Amino acid sequence: MIGLRIKEERERLALTQQGLADAIEIAKRTLIDWEKGRTSPNAVQLSALSALGIDVLYIVTGMRNASLPTVTTESSLTKRQSALLDNYENTDEAGKKIIEATAAEVAQQIGLMKKSG
Protein backbone atom coordinates (compact mmCIF):
# COMPACT_ATOMS: atom_id res chain seq x y z
CA MET A 1 0.00 0.00 0.00
CA ILE A 2 2.80 2.44 0.80
CA GLY A 3 4.17 2.07 -2.72
CA LEU A 4 0.83 2.90 -4.32
CA ARG A 5 0.45 5.94 -2.07
CA ILE A 6 3.92 7.18 -2.98
CA LYS A 7 2.96 6.90 -6.64
CA GLU A 8 -0.35 8.71 -6.00
CA GLU A 9 1.44 11.56 -4.24
CA ARG A 10 4.07 11.81 -6.98
CA GLU A 11 1.32 12.03 -9.59
CA ARG A 12 -0.65 14.52 -7.46
CA LEU A 13 2.37 16.81 -7.60
CA ALA A 14 2.76 16.15 -11.35
CA LEU A 15 6.27 14.76 -10.90
CA THR A 16 7.90 12.14 -13.06
CA GLN A 17 9.71 9.27 -11.39
CA GLN A 18 13.02 10.80 -12.47
CA GLY A 19 11.94 14.25 -11.28
CA LEU A 20 11.03 13.02 -7.81
CA ALA A 21 14.13 10.85 -7.56
CA ASP A 22 16.34 13.80 -8.50
CA ALA A 23 14.54 16.11 -6.07
CA ILE A 24 15.23 13.85 -3.08
CA GLU A 25 18.60 12.67 -4.36
CA ILE A 26 17.88 8.97 -4.79
CA ALA A 27 18.24 6.66 -7.77
CA LYS A 28 15.19 6.32 -10.00
CA ARG A 29 15.44 2.54 -9.43
CA THR A 30 14.99 3.14 -5.68
CA LEU A 31 11.77 5.06 -6.32
CA ILE A 32 10.52 2.36 -8.68
CA ASP A 33 11.19 -0.23 -5.96
CA TRP A 34 9.21 1.86 -3.46
CA GLU A 35 6.28 2.26 -5.85
CA LYS A 36 6.24 -1.48 -6.56
CA GLY A 37 6.33 -2.28 -2.83
CA ARG A 38 9.70 -4.02 -2.96
CA THR A 39 11.28 -1.62 -0.46
CA SER A 40 10.15 1.39 1.58
CA PRO A 41 11.66 4.79 2.30
CA ASN A 42 13.45 5.35 5.59
CA ALA A 43 12.79 8.26 7.98
CA VAL A 44 15.30 10.57 6.29
CA GLN A 45 13.78 9.86 2.88
CA LEU A 46 10.24 10.41 4.23
CA SER A 47 11.41 13.76 5.58
CA ALA A 48 12.76 14.68 2.14
CA LEU A 49 9.44 13.69 0.56
CA SER A 50 7.60 15.84 3.10
CA ALA A 51 9.79 18.84 2.27
CA LEU A 52 8.53 18.60 -1.33
CA GLY A 53 4.91 18.80 -0.21
CA ILE A 54 4.21 15.09 -0.32
CA ASP A 55 1.65 13.98 2.27
CA VAL A 56 3.79 11.60 4.32
CA LEU A 57 0.95 10.98 6.78
CA TYR A 58 -1.08 9.64 3.87
CA ILE A 59 1.80 7.51 2.62
CA VAL A 60 2.31 5.88 6.01
CA THR A 61 -1.27 5.65 7.35
CA GLY A 62 -3.62 6.16 4.42
CA MET A 63 -5.13 9.21 6.14
CA ARG A 64 -4.84 12.60 4.42
CA ASN A 65 -3.19 15.54 6.16
CA ALA A 66 -5.83 18.27 5.88
CA SER A 67 -3.31 21.02 6.67
CA LEU A 68 -1.33 20.55 3.44
CA PRO A 69 -1.94 23.21 0.79
CA THR A 70 -3.78 22.29 -2.37
CA VAL A 71 -1.46 21.63 -5.30
CA THR A 72 -2.14 22.92 -8.79
CA THR A 73 -2.66 19.94 -11.03
CA GLU A 74 -1.74 19.83 -14.67
CA SER A 75 -5.43 19.72 -15.63
CA SER A 76 -5.91 23.19 -14.10
CA LEU A 77 -3.05 24.69 -16.12
CA THR A 78 -3.41 26.53 -19.40
CA LYS A 79 -1.88 24.96 -22.49
CA ARG A 80 0.99 27.46 -22.35
CA GLN A 81 1.70 26.70 -18.69
CA SER A 82 1.55 22.98 -19.33
CA ALA A 83 3.90 23.30 -22.32
CA LEU A 84 6.36 25.33 -20.24
CA LEU A 85 6.35 22.71 -17.48
CA ASP A 86 6.72 19.94 -20.03
CA ASN A 87 9.71 21.68 -21.62
CA TYR A 88 11.25 22.16 -18.18
CA GLU A 89 10.76 18.51 -17.20
CA ASN A 90 12.21 17.27 -20.49
CA THR A 91 15.48 19.16 -20.37
CA ASP A 92 18.72 18.38 -18.59
CA GLU A 93 19.91 20.08 -15.39
CA ALA A 94 21.75 22.82 -17.29
CA GLY A 95 18.59 23.57 -19.28
CA LYS A 96 16.52 23.72 -16.09
CA LYS A 97 18.94 26.27 -14.59
CA ILE A 98 18.73 28.40 -17.73
CA ILE A 99 14.91 28.31 -17.68
CA GLU A 100 14.84 29.22 -13.97
CA ALA A 101 17.35 32.06 -14.39
CA THR A 102 15.51 33.43 -17.42
CA ALA A 103 12.15 33.38 -15.65
CA ALA A 104 13.63 35.06 -12.56
CA GLU A 105 15.33 37.75 -14.68
CA VAL A 106 12.18 38.56 -16.67
CA ALA A 107 10.05 38.71 -13.51
CA GLN A 108 12.61 40.94 -11.79
CA GLN A 109 12.77 43.30 -14.77
CA ILE A 110 9.03 43.89 -14.65
CA GLY A 111 8.98 44.14 -10.86
CA LEU A 112 6.97 41.01 -10.21
CA MET A 113 9.69 38.85 -8.67
CA LYS A 114 7.90 36.58 -6.19
CA LYS A 115 10.24 33.65 -5.63
CA SER A 116 13.08 31.70 -7.10
CA GLY A 117 13.97 28.01 -6.85
TrEMBL record:
InterPro entries: Cro/C1-type_HTH (IPR001387), Lambda_DNA-bd_dom_sf (IPR010982). GO terms for molecular function: DNA binding. Residues 6-59 form the HTH cro/C1-type domain. PROSITE patterns: HTH_CROC1. SUPFAM superfamilies: lambda repressor-like DNA-binding domains. Pfam families: HTH_3 (PF01381). It comes from the Bacteria. This is Helix-turn-helix domain-containing protein.
